[in-house]
Design goal:
With 673 residues, the protein is mainly α. It folds into three domains: 370 residues, no CATH class; 141 residues, no CATH class; 98 residues, Serine Threonine Protein Phosphatase 5, Tetratricopeptide repeat, CATH 1.25.40. Helix content is 60%, strand content 2%. The protein has a four-stranded mixed sheet, with helices on one face. The longest helix is centred in the first third of the chain and has 27 residues.
């Protein structure tokens, strides 16, 4: 036996130490910058407002040391570790302590859970509240605590809309009568914390998102109705299967979480037998409480398949990673039931089974040692430093229109929490910064103008001195994190592309382009001359770019597909699409054996030269590899429109809308017969 019933605190403290060692002093991507800035001055963040998290984060932000980003991330570390301790206390009611330790260690060291425990975000607190609800619903010597479960369910709902599902679990476990008499009244008491948003909004804070200063506007804010109907892909079984498979791949990537599925199935199938019998062998009471299978089966279905159906997100890596965090409750439920499954396995193995918990705990620890670099947030510098460089290069009292959370919110964090360049007026209208000289005061944007600001989000101008730009950043220290997070990888690509476009030194531009290409598609062979040729081509020097691509005398190195494609495209630009001869496209005879990206590029070149048939063949091949490749779909749509194929236009437009729901540019195609 590797643990006792009386040592769960050590379990939580151990994970707190792990998470604490990974915290970073700088802000991260997504909503982190906005949320930390809101906590720093008690502003109103985006719907639903997160009032409980806001107050707790403000308390942590008042600590007299470290940056605001680190202090609010500390809240996540404490909440994430506390959630594991609460879950352990819940699991040992029907499983042995060793099995509970092992199963929850697999959860605590998983990339998804670990990430949310070291970021200044709201999800770790929600995990803690979700764990408290489960703890209250599971049987113990005193019986079920329905009022506490209702209070916790309300707090979980306030912490994140995902918490609404806990009310179903409360009603299922406590019954309708007890829910109405005890859970709902207790929940109504908890819901009063929402009025914090209304009171603070009436004080006109710096960021007053949605202005929830009345009961009606508060209701709109917490129910997220200000967002309107979120555009989602049309329902299809193919899309749901793709979403489920992408999520499974993302949730279990580089971790042992895949072990939870068979262990959870074993735990649920065992009922009382595994926990009670194994518990008796470990010294626990053999007549202890049984695992409530109906509760866990309902929760797993609700936060698994049903949630996939409700979310129905576009099948891209970025959307998959964005939505994966919503399935943390699903993983929590699997982990608790997996504890009973480990006991079941130990019982099946007989004498050797006593080592089963230690084996799974060892697997979790080995995974933790491997994954520490990917979760060491102190190595991640780009989100904050990129925003700092953008602000540093602007003149006094400039106006900056910033689109995209990954740039906008770090800018907001620097102004609100670090008092940096508060003379710049930041507005919300994706990475190169463009100058718009026609506006007064000087106006800049990181995206094409014309995108409206969201209702209720207002930034005001303050006064502060200017600052100098920082040196160019090196991506190597955060390489492990870049490989895990597509958002961070994309921001690094944008950063180096911004440097490529803005520098006047061609050699530096080539170096920056090489860095961008290496991050954009790791492992792809571009060739030595590719980056230099693209830089010259971007600057209008087509002849110079072609000269760079010409083989040197005596050179025997074979050309990469990317170099071949780039040369053909440059020659098409030089001579005109209509005058391209067959000999120009001869090197593309091997395109069928190239990668999907190269085949799509080749198809685009054939389409430019009017060879639609060959272009369509390559596109069909690319779409056979990935039916949701947006570049291939859009090119195929243009060809279908050019050919007047109404059925193909409708089919392709519908498929694009699954990748980009709400894209009005293709809606006309869906109406075609």
């Amino acid at each position: 036996m590797i643990a006792t019933r009386h040592s769960p605190a050590l379990f939580g403290l151990g994970f707190a130490a792990i998470y604490l060692s990974c915290l970073g002093a700088r802000i991260y991507l997504g909503d982190s910058g906005e949320l930390v800035a809101a906590a720093h001055t008690l502003d109103i963040p985006h719907p639903p407002g997160y009032p409980l998290w806001l107050l707790l984060a403000r308390l942590f932000d008042m600590l007299p040391f470290a940056t605001s980003a680190w202090k609010v991330a500390l809240l996540s570390a404490v909440a994430g570790a506390a959630a594991l301790e609460v879950l352990h206390r819940a699991a040992i009611r029907f499983a042995t302590p060793g099995a509970s330790f092992a199963a929850l260690a697999l959860l605590g060291t998983s990339p998804l859970y670990w990430e949310q425990a070291v970021l200044p975000e709201v999800y770790a607190l929600h995990s803690l509240l979700f764990a408290l609800v489960l703890w209250a619903l599971l049987p113990d010597a005193e019986g079920r605590n329905t009022p506490l479960a209702g209070y916790g369910a309300a707090l979980a709902t306030i912490a994140h809309p995902l918490g609404a599902g806990t009310w179903i679990l409360v009603a299922l476990r406590a019954g309708v009568k007890r829910t109405l008499l005890f859970a709902i009244p207790a929940g109504l008491v908890a819901f009063t914390i929402l009025f914090v948003l209304m009171v603070r909004s009436q004080q006109d804070p710096f960021v007053n998102w949605g202005e929830p200063n009345t009961i009606a506007r508060l209701f709109e804010h917490v129910t997220r109705s200000q967002y309107g109907i979120v555009a989602r892909p049309a329902f299809s079984w193919e899309l749901l299967v793709r979403n489920a498979s992408d999520l499974a791949r993302e949730l279990t990537r580089a971790s042992a979480l895949l072990l939870l599925l068979p262990l959870a199935a074993a735990g649920l199938s065992a009922g009382a037998a595994a926990g009670a019998t194994a518990g008796a062998k470990a010294g626990a009471k053999a007549d202890g409480p049984r695992i409530p299978r109906r509760l866990f089966l309902t929760g797993i279905a609700l936060y698994g398949p049903v949630l996939v159906l409700l979310l129905r997100f576009p099948p891209t890596l970025r959307e998959t990673q964005t939505n994966a965090v919503f399935f943390t409750p699903f993983l929590i439920l699997l982990a608790i039931t997996a504890a009973a499954g480990i006991d079941r396995l130990a019982l099946f193995l007989g004498r050797a089974g006593r080592f089963a918990p230690a084996l799974f705990l060892l697997i979790a620890l080995l995974g933790a040692l491997r994954d520490i670099p990917a979760h060491r947030m102190r190595d991640v510098r780009l989100p904050e430093m990129y925003a700092r460089e953008v602000l540093s290069t602007l003149p006094d009292s400039a106006r900056l229109y910033a689109a995209g959370d990954d740039l906008l919110f770090p800018l907001l964090y620097l102004q609100r929490c670090e008092d940096f360049r508060t003379d710049v007026s930041i507005r919300n209208p994706e990475g190169t910064v463009y100058f718009y000289p026609a506006f007064e005061p000087p106006c800049y944007s990181n995206a094409p103008m014309g995108v409206p600001s969201p209702d209720g989000l207002v930034f005001r101008t303050l006064e502060a001195p200017d600052a100098k730009a920082a040196d160019v950043l090196d991506p190597r220290p955060e390489r492990a994190r870049i490989e895990r997070d597509d958002h961070l990888r994309t921001l690094w690509v944008n950063y180096f592309e911004t440097l490529t476009q803005s520098t006047t030194d061609p050699e530096r531009a080539v170096r920056f382009r090489e860095e961008a290409l290496a991050l954009q598609e790791p492992g792809v062979a571009y060739g030595e001359s590719f980056a230099r040729a693209t830089v010259l081509g971007d600057r209008g020097d087509v002849a110079g770019a072609l000269a760079v691509l010409e083989p040197r005398p005596g050179e025997t190195t074979s050309r990469t597909p990317r170099e071949t494609l780039l040369e053909i495209e440059l020659r098409l630009l030089a001579i005109g699409n209509g005058r391209a001869g067959a000999e120009l496209f001869a090197p593309l005879g091997a395109a069928d054996s190239w990668g999907r990206t190269e085949r799509i590029w080749a198809a685009r070149l054939f389409a430019m030269a009017g060879q639609s048939g060959r272009a369509e063949e390559l596109l069909q091949s690319a779409l056979a590899d990935d039916p949701y490749d947006e570049d291939a779909l859009r090119l195929a749509l243009r060809l279908a429109e050019r050919d007047g194929d109404a059925r193909a236009v409708a089919r392709l437009a519908a498929r694009i809308l699954q990748v980009r729901p709400g894209d009005e540019s293709v809606r006309a195609g869906t109406a075609a017969p």
